[in-house]
Amino acid sequence: MSQRHTDVSVQFGDHACALAEVVDRVSGKWAIGVLVAAAAGPIRFTELERAVEGISRRMLTLTLRNLERDGLLTRTVYPVVPPKVEYELTDVARELNESLAGLTAWAERHRTTIALARKEYDAQHGNG
Amino acid sequence: MSQRHTDVSVQFGDHACALAEVVDRVSGKWAIGVLVAAAAGPIRFTELERAVEGISRRMLTLTLRNLERDGLLTRTVYPVVPPKVEYELTDVARELNESLAGLTAWAERHRTTIALARKEYDAQHGNG
DNA sequence: CGGTATCCGAGCCGATACTG
DNA sequence: CAGTATCGGCTCGGATACCG
């Protein structure tokens, strides 16, 4: 299994370290998407594949395994044919989603500002 | 200039997308560390280098440029000898730090739980 | 349906050396 | 003091093909 995250080891005593760890967890191109898609309730593999636009089967699997590993979601296999697997957020993950709300608010407040800042920066310094 | 982040383009309409963008911004091994180190007030390059344990000159520069590009910090050059450059968080970044507080709280609440979940997962599935 | 295996390019990041 | 340049390893992540 590939997908080992960067070693965000202890850079400072406590605060920043814990924060860096959680950010590292929801980093990567797909984790947030999966977390949000699963927020509504139990969801199947193929449903996730459709919900998270652009994700490949491989990356969905890896992302799910990582989240499962961190105890953020559960994987339930139903022994039926055709196979059926459901993923569901744990309570911990639901709390995480709530904690992320503040961040989402910030993002939506300053979205255009940041886009503008980028444009300016790229204009002044050479990026084209 | 290297350091182009992964393309977290529109995966779903609004919410998750904005969130994914901000997470992408504070991703990478060092951004959080720099953000936290600069939270106390204006800080010089070398001070940052010491504050963010383990960071290289190169990565500090790249991280600073990215944050500056996104309008999260300002770079002030004082024309003196020896050179003096100060970095300071913008108001937007300060708001961001506040929004991150909820996340930090979550991280500290569930830190051990998650570490445990990992251990269990790695024990059951083969990771060794 | 729900995965895995393999190949491969792109970019992050560290080490090292050099500069105004 | 505050950077930049270059090289190279490693991992992330896409494409494709295959399996129970």
Automatic annotation (TrEMBL), chains A, B:
Domain (HTH hxlR-type) ranges: 17-115
InterPro entries: HTH_HxlR, WH-like_DNA-bd_sf, WH_DNA-bd_sf
Presence of the UniProt keyword ATP-binding in the record: no
Keywords: DNA-binding, Transcription, Transcription regulation
GO molecular function, one term: DNA binding
Family matches, as PROSITE patterns: HTH_HXLR
PANTHER family, sorted: TRANSCRIPTIONAL REGULATOR, MARR FAMILY, TRANSCRIPTIONAL REGULATORY PROTEIN
Protein name in the entry: DNA-binding transcriptional regulator, HxlR family
Originating species: Saccharopolyspora antimicrobica
